[in-house]
């Protein structure tokens, strides 16, 4: 009996047993209807890197409704044992729980993981992909029996299953999308047969799809009634508060948080939530500005962007926000290589520090997101926090920026590049630092010419190590009108506005503080959120500038005290320039500035040659 006859026979049997069975409101139909094409679909494919792709097994309750061979969890376990394979994990990608009871696996000691993926014309989202990769990676890293395997199934074991396995192969084997798709196709013929799934894979890794890659025809056993859906993309301007990247599983994030702490030589306490470990500057005031005379400093502009650290691994790049939350972005960072040969390795556990800004072309208003890297904490698992800043800054260029630029330039000239840098979500640059003797030019010419907002200056100790959390020697100066404090804002029961700061982990009400809101901000909407406020000395009131979605807690009381001291000291631009003019005449500065200028001229000359 061929597949079509079995299908018609099965349909006649159901109609004979219950004339109303095809009414979708009938519970029996919903519960025991077979997935379309399931009977003719091959049960499972060849093992690929310890993973067995499979169609969905159907529980014993379906057996009476199947005209043909059954495929129950019990049969799956037995069939794999005959092939010398014990199952240790089953990953279910279907969008329902009706096909079998999970206990069918668990009573055999097999762990079951559910990752709901919609299927049909919906490609699995990045969060689901990340969870899949994390679950598979954990299984293989923790298993003690080499004969334990993973069974992965969606409904038919081709599109969603193939999509996930291909992602895993690319992440762990460092192979191209084309090779990963080919490996899956050989293991589970005909492979992925939906064009949008194949296109999404190439888009995910910014690889050009070769002309030779042709989507297989839909298998004979799959009679799809799916309708094409239009994908609607919401257009809109970029903002610094946009959420970038895809969330990752909790366990993976916890592991990466601990890796960051290890790179920074920080002790992990018993706290459930680890705080953001990145270095924070302190506000410049009359007292700490004396540090500029005691140590050798360089200056850079303070970009009004969003703070992110970035962890680069073989599994992808992860933006780390001030909440110490990780989100995965598809970026590529090749390791340093010689003779302009295409690099074989990419960075693994390199930790950077920087800020995300949005450049806007003043003529066309075209926006471009850019990550400005200003420090490096570790290079390929090796911590560099104890090195002086000027060495870390040079290392950043040599180890991270130059290899990336070299490969990008090479690929831009290729007719068939294996990676598309132009499809990345943002560009990357090393942030510039300048001699203190150039601060006047920095303030008067450079900052006004920027294509993104700047609210002041940063003074970086040239010989300083990387100091996590608050760094008393890392100084920030803001234009006086932009000095700000981050408060927690709440509306009291009587509608009275309340401002809170953080003190020893608890919120502290700042009694008597008043706040006003700009026209576009609604106090009701702001209630319960962190708001950034500037001080209006004339009105003796705080002015809400914006909501801070990147922060979970308000400033510490000590931070507020330092900002207020800076505000009261009223260190204007003229005061800063006058002070620096005196500082650069000091012998300590004059000698080093001359040395640095000669070194810079020598480097520039060598590059021109």
Automatic annotation (TrEMBL):
Q: Does the keyword Transferase apply?
A: yes
Q: Which intervals carry biased composition (Basic and acidic residues)? A: 15-27
Q: Set out the biological process GO terms recorded for this chain's protein.
A: 7-methylguanosine mRNA capping
Q: Which SUPFAM superfamilies match?
A: (Phosphotyrosine protein) phosphatases II, DNA ligase/mRNA capping enzyme, catalytic domain, Nucleic acid-binding proteins
What are the protein's UniProt keywords? GTP-binding, Hydrolase, mRNA capping, mRNA processing, Nucleotide-binding, Nucleotidyltransferase, Protein phosphatase, Transferase
GO: which molecular function terms? ATP binding; GTP binding; mRNA 5'-triphosphate monophosphatase activity; mRNA guanylyltransferase activity; phosphoprotein phosphatase activity
| Protein's UniProt keywords contain Cytoplasm | no
Please report the stretch or stretches of sequence annotated as the Tyrosine specific protein phosphatases domain. 130-199
Enzyme class label: transferase
Positions contributing to GTP binding: 307, 322, 353-355, 476-478, 546-551
Where do the segments described as Disordered lie? 1-27
Q: Which residues are named in the active-site annotation? A: 154 (phosphocysteine intermediate), 302 (n6-gmp-lysine intermediate)
* Enzyme Commission designation: 2.7.7.50
Q: What is this protein called?
A: mRNA guanylyltransferase
